[in-house]
Fold each of these.
Amino acid sequence: MSETAEEAAPPEAFEIPGKDGLSIRGERYLAESPIGTVFVCHGFKGFAHWGFFPYVAQSLARSGLNAVTFDFSGSGIGPDRESFTQPEAFSTNTFARELDDLENLLDYARRSSWIDEKFGLFGHSRGGGTSILFAGADRSDVTALVTWAAISHVNRWSADDALDWRRRGFREVVNSRTGETLLLGTDLLDEVEAHLNTKVNILAAATKVKAPWLIGHGTADETVPHSEAEELHQRSAAVSSLRLVEGGNHGFGAVHPLTEAPPLLDRVVNETVKFFVDHAAE
């Protein structure tokens, strides 16, 4: 795959309402003779137009699968689809909100006849964690799951950090791409503390995933250690395949904007697309 996202046909844009007056904005990348549909979930501080997401979607569409990319309503990304112009949405985002967004999007897709019933699900990093929670909730409509660099647990801070977060009422998050500082309120902290062993237990959800699952992770991931992929595979060995990518970082070499796909990314995309195509009709 040498074609970049910019060289492919433009997708169809959509916007649907989320909770609290926020919107779920995204695109549909259409295949000529589709054999299925894949929904693509970005991660923390991510967005649908970042780096490899359009490239993955275009690659799926070229291989016969419609692809739907979108910004979670709590991503903080505004109507320009590039900038964090909705900091209050980012501040209050939670896993529960992301799961609601995904359910709302699927309902909309069914009402709009984008899908009949079944679909594939792709998630990167925290979006991988959200996808696992979703697919592990006794879903029979997910035909295939692919996660890249997925988190295996939601509590990603120390006890001291949590105390400071609670005391101040917010946590500062630096966006390494832009250098801006975003504030994260206590909604996520509240959720994790209340539901760590239940609703947001990713490892527990992994044991309940029924769909064929490809777990991709770079051995040089600087953000999420590849040991988390091994944990996920251990919990889901009956349905999952683990692919540790030697030398791969958190984005498999992708940058933003992506003007040319590096060979490592191409290899992971190729395997991902093949996995979805192989399981599209299940």
Amino acid sequence: MGVPSRVVLPETLDSLDPGDPRAHRSRQDLRRVHRAMRTVSILRDALRRLRLAASPRRILELGGGDGSLMLRLARAMRPWPDVVLTILDLHDIVSPQTLEGYAALGWRVQVHRQDVMAWAAEPKLEHYDLCMTNLFLHHFADAALPVLMHAIAGSCDAFVACEPHRNALGKLGSAMIGILGTNRVTREDAMTSVAAGFTRQELTALWPNGNGQWSCEEYTALPFTHCFTAALIRGRREAAP
């Protein structure tokens, strides 16, 4: 039986005001979901696979939300000193407590409120050692993804994306997410996310790897995550026409 095609539909959390109690509860749910999915461990493994020559100093997180997941990763990756983290999101919902957590690690955080497709259309004046996304790319239809991926490739030297795995196991996991005590928004969005997720080499096919500038890897991280990494091969960007 073949893999079903992607189906991208709006997710309820994206349409809620950040101050809506349902949105607040859903963000709390997602923290539990990330622990159940082993997201921090999966991200750490993805970063190891990049084999970076040096610790990143400038990091961009697209769709970073409240910044709590990246903070957990930052703590797990110590020592990464003197990092400047830019969180690009439609809303600034990073709490003072989360900012204090970053400051304790020696990280500086700036939140940039902007629609990511507007960001993708702009000239890239800032360059980052590393760009990261988590449960973010699946929100975008097939027509928008190449534009977004091209913008990411033009703004960083390495990229990590963790997304829902679009397969039977991912569908089963999303159907059972209620056992974590999640609310209706989170339960419905989980099903929608998996239907819009990725499988096989779909993200690799969208990555602009002209002239073999990038080393790319796409793989499944059990139980429910689909990962994509890309690292610029040193010297290739400068050598490209």
Amino acid sequence: MIRFIPIISASLLLVVLLSSCEQVIDLPLRDSDARLVIEGGITDDPGSCRVRLSRVVNYDQSNDPLLVSGASVLIYDNGAEYPLTEMETGTYVNPQLIGIPGHAYRLVVTVDGETYSSTSFMNSKVEIDSLSFEKQSFFMDTNLVTHIHFKDPAGIENYYRYRFSTGGPLNNEIQIDRDLFFDGQDINQPLFGQGPKLFPGDTMFIELWGIDKGVYEYYSTLREILGGAGPSTASPANPTSNISGGAMGYFSAFTVARKWRVVE
């Protein structure tokens, strides 16, 4: 089954990689007051548990983030409490905590006497079966489009994010998907906007993130804001956050599957 997803460039984002699978996004806000932004989560990779805290100001002012130090950051798993340590200003980690598929993780952040929380469920891991390449012509130009093949689990709501690299950092585009129309099917997903043209000998590296519904909605609304923002448009709304207490951003517990293939 071949499906097509919209791809919106993230050139408007200032992206800082916390780790190989965590992405931090500095948000333009509609509100007039500075707001706390919580970004981070936990994966099934060792050393991936990280949370970044910052404050950003109004969308029409300087949007340099103010990193938040001295916060209490805790993650709960089945009643067990795991504190995160401030590794550097605004970045909190627990290298020993590794996510387990099937578990729900609760984040609790306390800053200046205010408490914020979020819960994210880590679905069972979906592995990548294989990668393939197909020649496609676009306006008299021919390129190789990468296809990712995997089996969607039947009877479960699954949400995905695709990330890839052709030798450099992972792509910044917000490419997300859900199994609303392909539950339980074998998926053959072309990944457009994959960056530089591929040539024999190049290596394509793919990550398939298994995210939950709340994080999918966050990415979806953020993509709409970035795609529609412009001088002639109305002020954008804030992205849908899965964090309670009035903070912006997201907390995500997700699996990461990887696959690479050399172009022949």
Amino acid sequence: MTKENIFIINYGMGNLRSVENAVKKLNHNCKIINNPDELDVSSKMILPGVGSFKVAMNLLNQGGWVKKIKSNVLENKKPIFGICLGMQLLADTSEEFGITEGLKMIPGEVKNLKNLGCKLKIPQIGWNNVTIKNKHEYFKDVKNDMDFYFVNSYVFLPKNQKNIIGLTNYDLDFCSVIANENIFGTQFHPEKSSKSGLKILSNFLNA
């Protein structure tokens, strides 16, 4: 196994065990951390999340995570992988239960699919495909238009099109994969998305 310090951030709203199991299945050591100070010795970090943006940001702020995440990612350029809500938290703001400021790591906003005109059942739950729009190293050896597992009512609208790596259609096209230098996120759950999802996670871990 590798000796890297791969940390899964436990701020109170993560799908932690399934992510941990996936990382270990890929033959990497990882640790679920409860103390933001530990990020200073991290090599890479994973930010999972299930639930409300507003509640998540409150927990991140109250737990002292925001400053530590931003200093390690933005200043020290450590890689971070946001999963599902964890991807949305990378945005500037979300409209869920009123406007809430996010981590402000990739310019953009999070909006409800219904408010964007989606007529299908919300939340989207199940398998849907991802069309790759911009090449990225974490999609190496992942075929275009593969299916991944989604559970979401809200989507990330990035300000800059160059940050969109993949798009998914659920009555309308939305950004399902986003990246900006060392910052990466997927709206789907790679740990629950069979071989293609695990390959993306593996590419992140091995980069």
